[in-house]
């Protein structure tokens, strides 16, 4: 295992990556250039273990491996353990509070994800849910940006975000999507069991996930720019939830 400039845990080379997969190592992503032979075996093992595979150019692999012989494959180790949705729901059950969950819909920038996790921790959220595909994972950049909060906030990584939302609904959690078409966020009651969906940096919430939401909420936009950074918007919503719950508890 080697470290790149971002101090992420790196495994490179076909046999080392294959053995890591067989051992059940906590891997965040597999980067592959090419197909055939043992690379196809690595692809199959990655799929069986639910680890995303990203097809890249050799230049990307060389950067990740620090210029070492990567043989067409590099694995990035996760810096933290993922939990289940049930684990996140258990947090509020143990506290005796109503669920307060953040769902990240394809937040690919690790700095944004880290900032969201940091605010989730300080605002008292029970956990964060992210998809396996098209999303940043718990890498070192996320941990650094979260200022350590990623060590305390449970993060569930799911293969199907829509199914994860269905599971939350089965547990009486209301789903709040964030979109310009929604109601003003200060007019919405967040004091019940809730999960807030933060959309991707460039495209917002996907159409499928929008359909899964029970309510749509928005932030007022008075300037010429009609959107905010995902982590900034997420922080405003999270602290509105905290504010409302504090008032309700008085």
Describe the structure.
The protein is of the alpha/beta class and 250 residues long. It has 9 helices and 11 strands. It starts with a strand and ends with a helix. Helix 5 packs parallel to helix 9. Strands 8-7-6-10-9-11 form a 6-stranded parallel β-sheet, with helices on both faces.
With strands numbered from the N-terminus, the spatial order across the biggest sheet is 8-7-6-10-9-11
* Rg calculated over all Cα atoms: 19 Å
The span between the termini is 52 Å
Low-confidence stretches: 1-7
Compose a concise summary of this entry:
This protein has 250 residues and is of the alpha/beta class.
Highlighted features:
elongated, 9 helices, single chain, disordered N terminus, six-stranded parallel beta sheet, alpha/beta, 250 residues, 38% helix, 22% strand
What topology does this entry show?
Layout: E1 2-3, E2 9-12, H1 14-23, E3 27-32, H2 38-48, E4 53-55, H3 58-64, E5 73-77, H4 85-95, E6 100-104, H5 110-123, E7 127-131, H6 140-145, E8 155-158, H7 161-170, E9 174-184, E10 194-198, H8 207-212, E11 215-218, H9 230-249
Parallel strand pairs: 3-4, 6-7, 6-10, 7-8, 9-10, 9-11
Antiparallel strand pairs: 1-2, 2-5, 3-5
């Amino acid at each position: 295992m080697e470290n790149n400039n971002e101090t992420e845990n790196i495994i490179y080379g076909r046999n080392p990556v294959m053995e890591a997969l067989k051992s059940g190592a906590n891997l965040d992503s597999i980067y592959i250039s090419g197909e055939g032979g043992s690379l196809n075996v690595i692809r199959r093992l990655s799929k069986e273990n639910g680890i995303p595979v990203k097809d890249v150019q050799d230049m990307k692999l060389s950067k990740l491996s620090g210029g070492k012989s990567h043989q067409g494959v590099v694995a990035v180790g996760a810096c933290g353990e993922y939990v289940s949705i049930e684990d996140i729901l258990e947090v509020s059950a143990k506290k005796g509070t109503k669920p307060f969950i953040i769902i990240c819909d394809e937040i690919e920038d690790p700095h944004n994800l880290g900032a969201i996790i940091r605010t989730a921790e300080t605002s008292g959220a029970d956990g964060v849910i992210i998809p396996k595909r098209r999303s940043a994972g718990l890498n070192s950049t996320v941990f650094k940006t979260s200022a350590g909060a990623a060590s305390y906030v449970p993060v569930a990584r799911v293969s199907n975000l829509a199914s994860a939302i269905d599971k939350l609904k089965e547990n009486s959690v209301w789903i709040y999507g964030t979109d310009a078409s929604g109601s003003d966020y200060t007019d919405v009651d967040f004091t019940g069991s809730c999960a807030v969906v933060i959309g991707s940096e460039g495209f917002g919430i996907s159409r499928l996930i929008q359909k899964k939401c029970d309510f749509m909420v928005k932030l007022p936009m008075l300037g010429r720019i009609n959107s905010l950074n995902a982590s900034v918007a997420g922080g405003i919503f999270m602290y509105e939830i905290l504010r409302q719950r504090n008032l309700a508890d008085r």
